[in-house]
Amino acid sequence: MDYFVPEFVNRLPQLEAFENVLAGRLNRHIFLIEGEGAIGKSFLLEQFLYMADQRMFSRLDFRDEGAHTFLSLIQTAISDLGYQRFPATSTAINRVTIEAQNTILLKSEVVHQPQEIDQAQLRHILTEYFSLADLQNLAFDLSVDYERFPGQGKDNIARELITYLKNQGRLSELVSAGRKWRPAAPWPEVTRSPSDESSLAYQDIALYDNNHFLPPTMDRWQQQAFEQSISALFFEELSVLAQDQAVILSYDSFEKAPLEACRWLVEQLLDELTRGRLQNVLVIVSGREIPNVSGKHKLTSITVQTRLENFDFDTVRTYWVTCRGLSGDLLERIYEETRGHPHELAKKANESGGRPLSHQVMVI
Q1: Element holding 237 (H helix, E strand)
Q2: Within this chain, do residues 66 and 129 fall inside the same structural domain, yes or no?
Q3: 361 forms bridges with which residues in the sheet?
Q4: Cβ proximity of 163 and 184 under 8 Å
Q5: Where do the DSSP E strands lie in 194-325?
Q6: Closest CA to 45 of 308, 332, 359, 329
Q7: For helices 342-351 and 331-338, what crossing angle results, to 10°?
Q8: Along the 364 residues of the chain, how does pLDDT read in single tens digits?
Q9: This model's pTM is above 0.70
């Protein structure tokens, strides 16, 4: 198997495990890569995709701008793998989004922007007038799973709750529900003019990327049904595609994923893998945080989970002397200063005049 060598000192266990999955010697459908910032997760993911270049793959980085809803995750995969391979899914999405846009046009020829709600004011109210338990109950009333937020504590829940509901177009619901809990708090006024139906229509529509909308008539249960139906179509066409060729779906910087994307990945995509209906599909997720599969036997039985650590002294010496062509005289001090962190080590080597890394392919 070919690998990019110089950058991948001390990452051979991960590369070999991935090669075994690709070759079918290890029956796994999920590969989770965890590690602290700048330790090489994205670089390792790049190497995985290089090794899998004879297979079809899709890649989404949650650091990129975008709504990152369940719909955008499906659309990214369809775009990368080819729209012609997902006719039923594409048709269903287009039908709903076109209906939603027609609804807006029927309301008015001009769509006005909804009234802005001061998010800083909302955050101040939630942190000053609510206890942690009250915020958890408020999230429950709004059908929001606060346990999936990155980080807990009152400040984190307040911030993530506002961000999540803003992305859903539901900040007015937060104001209304919060006012019931704390009527004396200085809540912002959310007014709708009875004559301004176009503004009303716009506020009630969940905006997705690429100008895709959900109809304003959809309640929460209908939205869940819509998600289930679109996901089922996508998985069915994905399984047909994977019968002829292996497919890899990769997701980087999972810690940046919003709540809806996290939920869809775990409850829809990973769950579908446990059912055995996507036999030739591999999902890779990397990040400072990764989906929690502990205690879930059906998931752990099909998962490879690895955590990238700092380099040990011997690996630092290999990188410093062999890969970068630098003197080993001050190696102990270099190791102490960088703690074996790949990014810090590379920066130190560049500052010391180390030779540029070669991207030549070498056989291991």
Answers
A1: helix 220-244
A2: no
A3: 4
A4: no
A5: 247-252, 281-287, 303-307
A6: 308
A7: 130
A8: 444 444 456 788 899 999 999 888 999 999 999 999 889 898 888 888 888 876 888 888 888 877 578 888 999 999 899 989 999 998 888 877 665 555 444 444 433 444 578 888 999 999 888 888 888 888 888 888 887 787 778 888 898 899 888 887 888 889 988 888 888 888 887 654 333 333 333 333 333 333 344 555 566 777 788 889 999 999 999 999 999 889 999 999 999 999 889 999 999 999 999 998 898 999 999 999 999 988 888 999 999 999 999 999 998 998 899 888 888 888 999 999 999 998 899 889 888 888 876 543 333 3
A9: no
Which two structure tokens, joined as six digits, stand for 76? 């990214």
Which residues lie below 8 Å from residue 109, measured CB to CB, with a gap of 6+?
none
Q: How far apart are CA 327 and CA 307, in angstroms?
A: 30
Instruction: Give how many domains the chain has, as a whole number.
Output: 3
Contact 296, 182 (CB under 8 A): no
Which amino acid does the sequence have at 241?
A: L
The verdict on 299 and 325 lying in the same domain is no
User: Which tokens go with 63?
Assistant: 């650091």
Q: Which of 310, 288, 248, 246 is CA-nearest to residue 31?
A: 248
For residues 301 and 224, state if they share a domain.
Answer: yes
Please enumerate in sequence order all residues whose Cβ is within 8 A of that of 33, keeping only pairs 6 or more positions apart, or say none: 14, 41, 44, 45, 284, 285, 286, 287, 290, 306, 308
Distances from the Cα of 136 to the Cα of 156, 157, 255, angstroms: 11, 8, 21
Say yes or no: 70 and 150 in one domain. no
- Can you tell me the distance from the alpha carbon of 21 to that of 281, in angstroms, rounded to the nearest whole number? 11
User: In terms of domains, do 247 and 172 share one?
Assistant: no
Domain that holds residue 296: 2-95+216-307
Which parts of 167-246 are beta strand (E)?
none
Check whether residue 262 and residue 346 sit in a common domain: no
Beta carbons of 1 and 19 less than 8 angstroms apart:
yes
Q: Are residues 37 and 180 in the same domain?
A: no
In this structure, the dihedral spanned by the alpha carbons of residues 146, 211, 198 and 115, taken in order and rounded to 10 degrees, is 50
Residues facing residue 306 across a β-bridge? 33
